[in-house]
Automatic annotation (TrEMBL):
Annotated keywords: Acyltransferase, Transferase
Name used for this protein in its record: Phospholipid/glycerol acyltransferase
Pathway annotation from the record: Lipid metabolism
CDD domains hit by this protein: LPLAT_AGPAT-like
Organism: Mycoavidus cysteinexigens
Cited Pfam families: Acyltransferase
PANTHER family documented for this protein: 1-ACYL-SN-GLYCEROL-3-PHOSPHATE ACYLTRANSFERASE
Amino acid sequence: MIAAWCRVTLWMLRILNGISYHLEGLDNLPNGPAVLLSKHQSAWETLAFPALLPRPLCFVFKRELVFIPFFGWTLGMLKMVQIDRRKGHSAFASMLRQGRARLAEGAWVIMFPEGTRTPVGTRGQYKVGGAHFAVSAGVPVIPIAHNAGYVWPRNSFIKYPGVVTVSIGKPIQTTGRTPAEVNAEVETWIETEMLRLAPMAPRS
């Protein structure tokens, strides 16, 4: 139902706002468990990925969101991974337990390593949590870059017509590697790809 609602929203964005999309690298997605680590510029990708990717997605989010009326209550009923940041180191053990369960059910775990939406043309700090989870779970990482911030800027009600290009990179193996090494490779690939996808001047 959620994926269907996301597809309807993408259709409305195309009809009402002239926003379409183009996917590159779909053949890089594995036929098995994986952690997706994506650039985060807009609200567009949170709506689009569940609709466009071929497996159910399990987002990782902070537990405080479940207390938001209606939105949070619905989020809490979905099979996502909740993090209670007040629990410190034990929060990662809980995330790993929940994430492994979702992977075993056939879902992909998806995270935004920058943690929050970044303005077009900028780079946030890539946190190592997603890579740490992938190394601990023994699954590959799939890096994803996109230029959605040009059509739906961060914290902006105004949307602009255009084509969002989503580029999916080749799997990054985690076996025998440290989270820091994996995270650095993810950041390098995504930010290099962003230079190709987003050569335009930032929206004001």
